[in-house]
Specification:
Layout lengths: L1 H9 L3 E3 L6 E2 L5 E2 L1 E3 L8 H14 L6 H13 L3 H17 L7 E5 L7 H7 L4 E4 L5 E4 L6 E2 L8 E9 L3 H12 L4 E10 L4 H7 L3 E7 L2 H9 L5 H12 L1 H11 L2 H6 L4 H12 L7
Parallel strand pairs: 5-6, 5-9, 9-10, 10-11
Antiparallel strand pairs: 1-4, 2-3, 6-7, 7-8
Helix pairs in contact: 2-3, 8-9, 9-10
């Protein structure tokens, strides 16, 4: 597990902001860290390459599962970081869950596919590729055959994802898509849990939720002990964990120039700063 934490930082999958420069999130809020779990594919560059490949191929719904698997197997055999993450996922399923009870494994467009397809392949389970439009394709355990539809009534599914925050993708897309086949997601396994209510939401829906890494004080402490983050960064992360909105509201009060600078920054930052101000997301107005 300590290896996995070090890999999160080494690949920039988990990035902590410099002092007094929190990151802007898509929502218009700010925070001290950013997560791109798919960078655990080995590096940001290789992860972006795979995302670009997926974007080109994803409309070929009967071909893309095998094409992604082939790319992932090639990376698995050449990149030790990605290999260890995949091995951790496979080992977790084998040791923490009853593999014999799992009928299918599923993964949703796009970042789940960095991990879900290859885990299904190693566990010799048929795979459900779930697309954003809620359509699915179903592949045989070796991915040699993929069909667009199948009656999966009564089948139990393990969904594997890169990240869970509030489980909105599960509720909006992955769960109903799998249910449309007659199956049910019984288990969820993610690489990273942001500890923002997603796992609890899944559990309230009767789904057994698991993760390899939880973004919480214990993880920060391990990173501090390993010399990956500073004492100041550790304190900042802990404060944010305890009270994200309150911590960032106080930051904006203490640094009024931060919002002003953001409004004169790049286009993406300007959009997010306006969301923050116009939505009064921190109750500053």
């Amino acid at each position: 597990m300590s290896n996995l934490i070090s890999y999160l930082f080494k690949t920039n999958a988990f990035r902590v902001c410099p002092d007094n420069k929190p990151f802007w999130y898509t929502s218009g809020k700010i925070g001290p860290y950013f997560i791109n779990t798919h960078f655990l594919y080995g590096s940001e560059e290789s992860a972006v390459d795979l995302l670009n490949f997926i974007d080109i191929e994803k409309d070929k719904k009967l071909e893309v599962p095998k094409k992604i698997l082939d790319r992932c197997l090639e990376q698995y055999n050449s990149n030790n970081i990605y290999k260890e993450v995949v091995d951790e996922l496979v080992d977790f399923v084998k040791t923490k869950l009853d593999v014999n009870e799992i009928d299918y494994i599923s993964g949703g467009e796009r970042r789940d596919w960095f991990f879900a397809n290859i885990v299904a392949y190693f566990l010799k389970k048929p795979f459900i590729t779930v697309f954003k439009d809620l359509s699915c394709s179903i592949s045989s355990p070796d991915f040699s055959e993929t069909v667009s539809s199948k009656d999966l009534t009564g089948k139990k599914v393990l969904h594997i994802a890169d990240l869970i925050t509030a489980a909105s993708s599960y509720v909006r897309a992955w769960i109903p898509a799998v249910q449309s086949l007659g199956a049910e997601i019984v288990w969820s396994l993610v690489v990273v849990d942001r500890m923002q209510g997603g796992s609890e939401r899944l559990k309230s829906l009767g789904i057994d939720a698991h993760s390899l890494v939880q973004i919480e004080p214990q993880m920060f402490k391990q990173a501090l002990d390993m010399g990956i983050i500073t004492k100041e960064q550790n304190e900042m992360l802990n404060k944010f964990y305890e009270d994200p909105d309150g911590t960032m509201k106080q930051f904006l009060i203490n640094h009024p120039e931060f919002l002003e600078d953001a409004l004169h920054s790049d286009e993406k930052t300007v959009v997010r700063a306006r969301l923050c101000i116009e939505g009064n997301l921190y109750g500053l107005n």
